[in-house]
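Thread: pyridoxal-5'-phosphate complex, take 2
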Amino acid sequence: MGSQNKIERSNLTRQVDMLLPQLLEAVTAVLKSGKYVLGETLKTFEESFAEYVGTKYAVGVASGTEALYLSLRALDIGAGDEVVTTPFTAVPTISAIVMTGAQPVFADIDPITFTIAPKSINAVISSRTKAIIPVHLYGLMADMDAISDIAEQHAIPVIEDAAQAHGSQLHGRHAGSIGLMGCFSFYPTKNLGGFGDGGLITTNNEKIAEKLFLLRNYGQTSPYTTTINGINTRLDDIQAAMLLVKLPYLDKWNQRRQEIAEIYHQKLIIPEIEISIIPEGYKSNYHVFVIRAKQRDELWNYLEDNGIQANVYYPLPGHLQESNIHLGYSKGDFPIAEEASGNVLALPMFPELSNEEIDIVVEYIHKFYAINKIIPE
Ligand SMILES: *Cc1c(COP(=O)(O)O)cnc(C)c1O
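Output below.
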């Protein structure tokens, strides 16, 4: 609306501009190698990423969704089984469970951290529960101490959905290194993003790793021989090559995201806005920066009208999606997730966001609430 601002929620080309020569060189090397699927470049990336996360193994796959699906398949989870997860997550956490034939069972979130609440997990565990999938939402890890305790008590494996948590930590341990498996996505907007789709599973368990290597490659133990039925979901060597270029920058980029979050925290002291503090012992990679805002939709529109992109993750929790009607949930079942859906707003956040741009975002949020003062009843 005639605004001269243009501040994106996320911008990918600034990073490309910086890395273009290195990216082209890496891609050229793969092109010239003649090996594009399950080649040495993929292997090198898997080893590098495993080392970064602190696990023995990493298995590259074609997307984060398939990382989740394959991790469930590695545990032989399917029809008749239940998998406990959060309703406040990206769609694929849930669809990956449904794809195996198992039934997602939801547990409500914690109102401060937005991640699955351990006590809600306890309440829904049954004899059919075969896995728990906590999601490290917005870059903040779920309460893995409490979740690991519950899982151990019931002898249920934990699969971390770490698609938003590259580099996030809890007591110095990386996301993806605590559960039996950790699932990552390299979708372009993730903290470590490729140039297309990609994903990966981390694990310390040798048997699981072996099974995942089979499952991602038709189940082939040797050419044209299978012992289990797998699918085709492999991380391309071209993507691996570009991810290898970007991996050494990940910590630096996450640090800049933390700086940006710090600035937002300091400058957004407004009664109509709530910003969660990161709990002691946790390090967020600030995949997104989320506030809870009064008059959220009006604020969102106002920012949009003034050239500032914000976004809502997620406007409709999983238990209320049409695709999940068969699960039998209804409105009111998970009030904390439902409330969050109604008031969260993600502000522009990416490492190359400038301090000047942050100031403009802050200025317009202040303006909005100055104009729309809520008069106490
Ligand atoms: C992005 C994302 C996924 C899925 O990753 P894709 O690579 O897009 O398939 C899964 N879970 C969460 C929480 C995500 O944010």
